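Pipeline run #58 for the internal structure catalog. This entry was flagged by the ingest filter as a single-chain record with no existing model, so it goes straight to prediction. Upstream metadata was stripped on purpose; only the residue string is passed forward. Reviewer on rotation: M.T. Logging verbosity set to normal.
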Amino acid sequence: MAAADVAGYVACWQPVSVPPQAACFARQVAGAAVPPTRARANALLWAAARLAAFGIPLGLDPVPEVLLHPSVIERFAASAPGLSGSARRTLRTSLRFIACRVVPALAPVDTPLPRERAKAPYSPAEIAGYLALADA
């Protein structure tokens, strides 16, 4: 599917399950994320609309810098009503994807993980002891 077709789909998307202000926010951020397919665009639109429908009644401004903040995404994923665990995980992943594309300055920097040396291999005596135990 051409990028223009996906962009047209995003621009014309009109959900019935969320307020118009939430749908407008979803179109804005999903379009800026440039999804490659219509199916991915639909998933991003749905996730962004649900986030906006959650945040706007709480008094949050429907702008990417506010609603796509990592703390807002995590709060939404933890407390959004009526969602299964798998739906919460999918929404959080989609929203993190949008946030990385739309407001990359808010993306948390990956913390480097410490490296550990591999443990020393078993000595021939230890292997012989384990085999003796297995034979017993």
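catalog note: The helical segments are 3-12, 20-33, 38-55, 64-67, 70-79, 85-102, 124-135.
catalog note: The radius of gyration is 23 Å.
status: ready for reviewer M.T.
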